[in-house]
Recover the amino acids of this structure.
């Protein structure tokens, strides 16, 4: 099944960077569009994976699993802290 490519990206680039991209594309036996798209897709995947995945050392993974298996109990000090007004706001 083929995908129709209807969307377009346009970018401005300094002449020396364009020459470098053209040379790299030619060396890779790709069109400049294919080369730039491939590079952009690879970087997008890396960025999104870093956002969605957490990498832990073996000891950190063990500590995390232990914390999930035995969650802390809410004591009065924690409950009091949770009732206080926040001094910050999350930015999403």
């Amino acid at each position: 099944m083929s995908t129709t490519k209807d969307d377009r990206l346009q970018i401005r680039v300094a002449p020396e960077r364009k020459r470098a991209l053209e040379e790299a594309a030619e060396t890779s036996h790709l069109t400049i569009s294919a080369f730039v798209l491939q590079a952009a897709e690879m970087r997008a995947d890396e960025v999104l994976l870093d956002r969605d995945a957490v990498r832990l050392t073996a000891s950190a993974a063990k500590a995390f699993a232990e914390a999930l298996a035995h969650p802390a109990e809410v004591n009065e000090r924690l409950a009091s802290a949770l009732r206080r007004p926040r001094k910050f706001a999350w930015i999403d």
About this structure: The chain is about 60% helix and 0% strand. Residues 20 and 26 are 10 Å apart (CA to CA). Residues 15-83 form one domain. The helical segments are 15-27, 32-52, 58-69, 76-83.
